[in-house]
Amino acid sequence: MKKNSSLIKIMYLLILFFFSNSYAQIDEVVKIYKSDFEQIDLDNSYDLIKKNQSFAISSYTALKIASFLSYQQDYKTAFKFIRLADIDAFLEEDKPFYLYIYGTILKNLQDSKYLDIFKQLAQNYCHSYYGYKTYLEIYPYLSEKEKYSALETCLKNRHYEKVKNLLFTLKDENAVNYYLLNISQNKEFYFNQISKDSEFYLKALSKMSHLNPIYEQEYLSALLLKDDVKTFLNFLKNKALKAFYKGDYNSFQKYYEMFYSFNDKEDSDLEWLKFLYYYKSKDLDLAKTKLLSYGKFSNDPFQIEYWNKLIESKNINEIDIKDSYKVSEITPYLSLIVYKTSKSITIKKESPCPNKYGEVAEILNKLKSIDYKLAWAEGVYQVKKGKCGEVYSALPEAGVRCFSQLHECSYVKPFGSVEPKEFENIIYAIMKQESFFNPYAISWSNAVGLTQFIPKTGYYAAKQIGLNDFDMVDLYKPDNAILFAKWYLQKLLNMFSGNLVYVFASYNSGEGAVKRFLDKNNIKDEAEFIEFYPYQETRDYVKKVLRNYAIYKYKE
């Protein structure tokens, strides 16, 4: 027995020594990262980084040193360091700089591989400073297809001025006019400059088809001529959806019938809208028949029951629900039922969430106390490397990336309690959907942080809260992101008398849009609001956040 006890002690001491040695080395790497370049011992740093290449902090440190050496034109030594960095270790916003430094080093070493790296940078990150700069440097070496890829990246990220400035690099005037059509008000002028035999004509015609019935007919005829039935049907379906949510029910009927004149298979989205159309028209018998028929498509059994009660003018309280559910069984309409009624549920745990302690977890805890952004980058990197258990234990906001948005282990509260307490579940429900707990999230609309504030709202909120010298980067700090969300949510709760459906919709599409919709429409139930609201993103958003809210509320 004593022998076994001694063996356990020896093993424990060995593990402790190994971890302590790792922590000490990571401490040294962090010190190098934080040091001025003049204070860095290059030989010692190289050895330390190489020994700890499995950590993101080592890649960041290698990049820092390589960039300094590149600036000093010591490209040979810079190459030694940049090779130690792994592109997967960098957060998305840091990848353009890495590619730029790597490409610059290779170019000055006369390594032809530099062009491949610069092409990757120009095409995938043309909207960024370094991607745009690189494009202008290498465009003579880009194929026309590669140029189009870069411009599409700028378009997708709404960097329209960059698109305009890069058009001079294109050889095909049809391409120039196509991109001008995308970013200009006078679309018809540029459309008329595109040759009908150009590869851009059909794409341009697709854009114009939404503006003029003549172009729509030409586009549909062109698709049929190409025998592109899939695109043809998708176009008709999208036109039907847009017409419905604009309240143009005659056009909805027209596109609905056109769709089915070319297709025998029922489409679930169109069948749901047909039910809503009957409901809105007060053809309740037809609505009931269509609702029952739609049941075969629905993944939410409570959706059918809920709308049945509305058709029959019965109380939602009459819907039977169980006492407990698994997280995977919580649906948007079940969430709406428990929100609107006095019923409550408990949530059964399906499986334990990972809880593993080791080298990675200890290093993450260490980094959190030194530099949160480094800890975040490290956590995201270690998830990619499969260290889910340790990341989830030490940095759950990064560890949730091991799971889908619907998994029970993704319902964490990584930033602690929120005061007042009634805000806590609301804020986490929103945060989960807005950023999936990424403190450095940036959307295409420049909304930033955990709770995704756009600049206009951010600066207004800062003024109301009383924060002087506010800058949008302050919202990368979790405490600030939560503080701003509390302020805005309190405003919305007051505005909509505490109705969370309208609050969630306002958080996504703005309170002005929600108020206008409510003023214009005779909404008798929150489900009517959710399904008839004209913005698809908001309809989906409200359902998901309601589900999040129910799970957070009853998971405790």
Automatic annotation (TrEMBL):
SUPFAM superfamilies: Lysozyme-like. Residues 424-529 form the Transglycosylase SLT domain. It comes from the Bacteria. Gene3D superfamilies: 1.10.530.10. Coiled coil: none annotated. InterPro entries: Lysozyme-like_dom_sf, Transglycosylase_SLT_dom_1. It holds the Pfam family SLT. Belongs to the transglycosylase Slt family. This is Transglycosylase SLT domain protein. It comes from Sulfurihydrogenibium yellowstonense SS-5.
